[in-house]
Structure formats: structure tokens, C-alpha cells
Amino acid sequence: MLRGIGVRFGGLIALEDVSLTVPPRRIVGVIGPNGAGKTTVFNVICGFVAPHTGTLTLDGAPLRPKPHRLARRGIARTLQGVGLFAGLTLVENVMAGATASARAGFVSALLALPRSTREEARLREDAVRQLDALGIGKHADALPATLPYAIQKKAGLARALAARPRLLLLDEPAGGLGADEIDELAVLIRELPETAGTAVLLVEHHMDLVMSVCDEIVVLDFGRVVATGTPDQVRGDPAVAAAYLGTDAIPDSRPVAGDVTR
Fold first, then answer.
1. Do the beta carbons of residue 133 and residue 152 sit within 8 Å?
2. Residues sharing a CB contact under 8 Å with residue 236, sequence separation 6 or more, in sequence order
3. Would strands 199-203 and 167-171 be described as parallel, antiparallel, or unpaired?
4. How many separate domains does the chain show?
5. For residue 51, which phi and psi values (nearest 5 degrees)?
6. Quick one: how far is CA 81 from the chain centroid?
7. Is 79 part of a structural domain of the chain?
8. % of the chain at pLDDT higher than 90
9. Which are the contacts of 147, defined by CB distance < 8 A and separation ≥ 6?
10. Span 142-174, pLDDT tens digits
11. 187 & 134 share domain
12. Helix (H) / strand (E) containing 13
């Protein structure tokens, strides 16, 4: 999907010759220490940053991403925070995340423009189904601010899934969650390729989550790929340990959740 991507901000090299592939219905993680370039990878895919070198493809076709056209190309992204519309209920937020044609109908509903009652009902039914799948359907008519943060995070995921993406970008989904909530999130993410039929590209600093859900991990350091492999391969790679710790290996279990940042 990304081949030879290079990004510069003035004299700063953010990415250099970065290549990675996310196969259909697989989960690929992107990790690395602070300033490694993880967010820049996401911003390139979403069209917020134009690479100076390299190419992007989706399903074998050239990808020239524009943020407002991502859903049409089959790409959805969650945000680091919640990013929900405060004045809309959870179900309305999920309706707003549907496909491009569905969003047009939803905007018409918000503006009281002529629209199909049948279409609006279908959008709501689909949105409730997404919330139910994540175990938060009973909160469909609640406003985000009245609910715990973990439920808001799930609603953000439901909104992204409402677009029925072929590629889902998860940007630090575990941020702000407790240990039990992260464990629950890991189960949900691991099931997404099967339940939602989507590939997943995950940026996350909670190493226990990354190691438990990813089929493959790409490690960045100073904008370069220093390792690629399965979780076990990456865990034992000296280059990865050097990037994070300056040591020879990453122990199988260590409390890194709060130690590694973007």
C-alpha cells in the first residue's frame, strides 16, 4: 500500500523510504518511539500530508487521498480522542459516519431538507446495529458527555465502522482507558477482520495491546522502518530494543503502557 514514502517538513525528515502493506482482513501495527513518524504515516494515507516521494495504492489502484473522500475509497479513521459531535446522540453520531451517500441523507435530515423516511430509518437501524455489536446499544439515544469515556471511545469506533471500510485506521484507540477496558478493546479489535470484513492499521503505544492483536508489526525509528515481522519476531529484534531502550531485547512482559509515546 505504501511504497518508498518520503516526507520532509522543511529540513526535517519525517519519513524516509517507508513501505508497508496491509493485506485484506489482517491487522498491522505501526509502533516506534516518540517522533518516529507514526502519525505522519496516517496523515499521508488520509491526505493531510503529501509525500515528496513514493506511491500509495489501495486494492492495487493508485491512491491519491483527499480527507473528504476517504469514505468513498473505503477508508475510515478513528481519532486519538473521541471526536464525537457533542450535540448529537450516539446513534446520530454513528449515522453521520455512514457511507458518502448515506451521509448526504443524514445531513438533509439535520437541516430538515426533503429526504426519504425509509432511508433515514435504514440509517438508524444500521447505526443501532453497529452500537449493539460493540455492546453499547442501550446508550443509543444518550449524548456523549453523559457517558463514560470508554463508551464514547466505542461509539467513535462504531462511527468509523458505519462507513463499512475496507481499511480501518485506528489511532491510539487505547488512550485514556484502564487495564480492563484495554483488554476488552483488544478482543473487539482482534475480531474486526471477521465481524466487519476490514483490514486494520493500528498506531498504538500500549505494547501489550499491539502484541496481542496484530498479525504483523512495522517498527519506525526516526522516520525509517527498522523492523517488520510478527509480534514474536519484533519482540526479539535487537534493532527494536535499541530504538526503544538501547538494550539487546524487549522482555516478554514489561510495564510499557505509559512509557512509550508518539
1. no
2. 249, 250
3. parallel
4. 2
5. -70, 150
6. 12
7. no
8. 62
9. 90, 139, 155
10. 999 999 999 999 999 999 998 899 999 999 999
11. no
12. strand 12-20
